[in-house]
Amino acid sequence: MKLFHTFQDFEERYQQYKDFQDFQDFQRYQNYQRFNQQRYQDCPYYDD
After folding, report:
1. What distance in Å separates the CA atoms of residue 13 and residue 8, rounded to the nearest whole number?
2. Residue-wise DSSP of 1-48
3. What pLDDT does residue 42 have?
4. Taking the model in full, what pTM does it have?
5. At residue 32, does pLDDT exceed 70?
6. What are the Cα distances from residue 43, in Å, to 31, 33, 38, 39?
7. CA 40 to chain CA centroid, nearest Å
8. Cα gap 25→16, rounded to integer Å
9. Which of these, 10, 17, 16, lies nearest to 2 by C-alpha position?
10. pLDDT for the residue 6
11. Dihedral of CA 21/23/17/1: which sign?
């Protein structure tokens, strides 16, 4: 029983970890987009 319980724990942990990784990737992607946008607007030939 205890083994099963720890395995459940492990699955939950792993899911959290995976979500966290996805979240980090998402943040990285957002930052990248923001950076590109900024660079685009700073360009002198960019007209709104």
Report:
1. 9
2. -HHHHHHHHHHHHHHHHHHHHHHHHHHHHHHHHHHHHHHHHHSTT---
3. 67
4. 0.45
5. yes
6. 18, 15, 9, 6
7. 23
8. 14
9. 10
10. 72
11. negative
Q: Which two tokens stand for residue 29?
A: 């992607």
- Please write the tens of the pLDDT for every residue from 3-30: 556 777 888 888 888 888 888 888 888 8
Distance of CA 11 to the CA centre of its chain: 20
Look at the block and give the residue holding tokens 């099963």.
4
d(CA 34, CA 14): 30
**CA 28 – CA 32 distance, rounded (Å):** 6
Sorted by sequence, the CB contacts under 8 Å of residue 35 that are 6+ apart come out as: none
